[in-house]
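Sample intake sheet
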Amino acid sequence: MIFFTNPYDEELLTEEEALKLGNYRKHIWINNALKKEETYREHKLWDGVYYLSPEENLTEVLAALGTHQKWGIKDNKQTVNDYTVWDCKFYHHFEQGPTYSKNVSDAEGFNIAIITYDSVTHQVKSGLKIYKFGGQPIPWGDPEAVFDEDSEIFFRFGEDGELDAVHVTDFLFSNDFTYTAAQFFRAAGNFFQEMGLSDDEIYYYTHAEPVVPNF
């Protein structure tokens, strides 16, 4: 088992630290594969994610997990262009929720995209893409300088896949962290080109679809 501080923080905790904190995530691994993620709030199980194997029965798994929490069930694992793609459906009291998502991680296991769709129309409802550039050389100033290891840009999408907001993890472009789409593109200038991203890469991160990179 591995303990973390919150859904977007990769900081590890000991079990003692997690229990003292009360709000934490717990990852449960079986045969070197992540099987279940549990989120706790004030020491109580709040929700979680279960990785369903093809041979498992969904109804039996949901019954074992319990119906009081909302569970994301990930299945239909695929490898596309060296990226791992999971479908994720949400259940509460055995009923599937009105949305589902596709989750994409890179070869190092980092999440780069979570796009949520309407279960009936299959239209984009919301989404998140993450551009990670930590440790890369800074293309201006000191030629030996590199970005902090945790440097990331979060692109958040709303209804119909429109880019609603952009969050930067440090003071990269100004004293702001979060921008509207228009503010970000004005502030960022030629940042992506300076980082060496191709047109396909720039398009990928700034649009909800395609979900899986084609580069």
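Comment: The first strand starts at residue 2 and ends at 6. The helical segments are 15-21, 58-65, 181-188, 191-194, 199-206.
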